[in-house]
Amino acid sequence: MAFHILLPTVLASIKAGVSIIGAGKIAILPFLLAALAYFHYDQFDPENKPVDRKQVDHEYDFIVVGGGSAGSVIANRLTEIPNWKVLLLEAGGHETEISDVPILSLYLHKSKLDWGYKTEPQDSACQAMTEKRCSWTRGKVLGGSSVLNTMLYIRGNRRDFDQWAKFGNEGWSYDEILPYFLKSEDQRNPYLAKNTKYHATGGYQTVQDSPYNTPVGVAFLEAAQEMGYEIRDVNGEKQTGFAFYQFTMRRGSRCSTAKAFLRPIRLRRNLHISLRSHVTKVLIDPNSRRAYGVEFIKDGRRQVVFARKEVILSAGAINSPQLLMLSGVGPAEHLREKKIRVIHDSPGVGQNLQDHIAVGGLVFLIDHPISLLINRLVNLNTALRYTLKEDGPLTSSIGLEVVGFIKTKYTNQSDDWPDMEFMATSTSASADGGTQVKRAHGVSDEFYNEVYKDINYKDTFGIFPMMLRPKSRGEIKLRSNNPLEYPLLYHNYLTDPHDVWVLREGVKAAIAYGETQAMKRFGARFHAKPLPNCKHLPPLTDEYWDCVVRQYTLSIYHYSCTAKMGPASDPYAVTDPQLRVYGVSGLRVIDASIMPTITNGNLNAPVIMIGEKGADLIKYYWLTPTTRKKRGLRAIFNMRLGETCPNITSA
């Protein structure tokens, strides 16, 4: 087809791209979008985008709030029952061609696809950030944060889930949740798919290795071996060790949960999706304490829709507790303070906030032109290579190549439950000249210019030491009873000294990692410029590192545990192990909020698993005979997947 025929599409794509990431950020962007449009990029995807329903019906069997990593899964699985009608409400719109390109993920931060949250200023961490406020990126788009994340597929550790079960959450041990990881997965690495019981093919969620690695990536693995670590499948039998990352990609492009779980079923007549629909309240009868619908705003108009069976909150660990509190479920004193009628006093709502944080800005200079520099590797040739061959530098997830799980001295050395994750990247914050990476991380101009300006656009690699099991706990509170006001976010990072010690040891291990012979052969040397606020301390001492970890404190955007599940005996449990909200019938929370403790690694894969299991819990409840309901769920969980619902078919 002649290019002039596609010109309107090209121009529209360019306009959309500029509105998302800002004008003048990447000179190659127009060429990339033109190539995508000219070669009918969207037609390479076997499914088109779901249709946004302009007017919803009066009533549905289930209303799912939030179309992210859990909500997309739930909408898919519940509509497998032909006579169940499901409404999925999402505050954002569709993902775009720009969000498909792996290397551009940081350009989505603070865009129209991001809620753009910031924490309240606190002295314990994020001292290098503007106004001392951490940036908390959350996806405001169909697919949720799986559209903005770095696509890292990490399931967590066996001990995480066994610990959940020990807390009193029956059915959540590792052996019981592993089938749900397998149910979703379509593993494209043939070695992993065929040679282990820990992976599967044929699921909706595509997982693959990156099509592109730099020489630095291979050296990362050699450095790990030099330090005595094994190279392994970190989603397999053991976690301690190093590996190339596994990514939620499909043919070199992002495979969000919207693309994975919603596009293939977009023609199911019992699934309705309403985009740009901001839910403001769950409707709960104060007498019966039953959830019977939701209020939401679309196109500036307040609407109400009713649920015959259940309302399911999958709005994420910030928005789900916010909605619970706005609806009268939360700490009673706080709700009364905000002039909200208390339906159920649930002191755990918004509490127990956990997140993974890393020390940012650990940069190593190298002498060879092999790292990922935007101004060198993103050009017309690589854009065409990406469009035509589905590989090349644009398929790199912002340079993330290798992951390592190690143990500091603060954890049990004989157990396979590491407390530190290395995120090894063939680039750094200075590789783009202090433009988008600095902006995405929220680093102040003063801090960046003093520490990194003199190494702009130089070849580097970076190590992000990420603490896996923080002891510090944050909280979420309502700013007011206005549902359109962002909540108050208190990270409370590093308020427990244990977390400072673990991160300090992670920094020291990262520097040792960069000093291995495998990295030294590239001329690797640590960029050791003293940080503002820490210059008064002797360099490279424990006191100095304790100061450093409070400066460039980087959230890895793994907010969780703010509506935790637990037994009825736990006063701070918000849901039971079937994810039903205590004190209110017909209401569940199914997302990262329900985690009692954060898992060992990046959260997207566990949240997809929670969506899969949560959908089955709903099916088991509504499809099983009354006698089985009275017996409880123990017998159901002991059966193999599928045996309890033999008549389930796709619509």
UniProtKB/TrEMBL annotation:
Pfam families: GMC_oxred_C, GMC_oxred_N
Keywords from the named record: FAD, Flavoprotein
PROSITE patterns: GMC_OXRED_1, GMC_OXRED_2
Chain positions recorded as FAD binding sites: 141, 279
UniProt cross-references to Gene3D superfamilies, sorted A to Z: FAD/NAD(P)-binding domain, Glucose Oxidase, domain 3
Protein family according to the UniProt entry: Belongs to the GMC oxidoreductase family.
GO molecular function: flavin adenine dinucleotide binding; oxidoreductase activity, acting on CH-OH group of donors
Taxonomic superkingdom: Eukaryota
Classification via InterPro entries: FAD/NAD-bd_sf, GMC_OxRdtase, GMC_OxRdtase_N, GMC_OxRtase_C
Coiled coil region boundaries: none
Claim: Flavoprotein is one of the keywords in the record: yes
Domain Glucose-methanol-choline oxidoreductase N-terminal: 139-162, 316-330
Entry cofactors: FAD
Protein name: Glucose-methanol-choline oxidoreductase N-terminal domain-containing protein
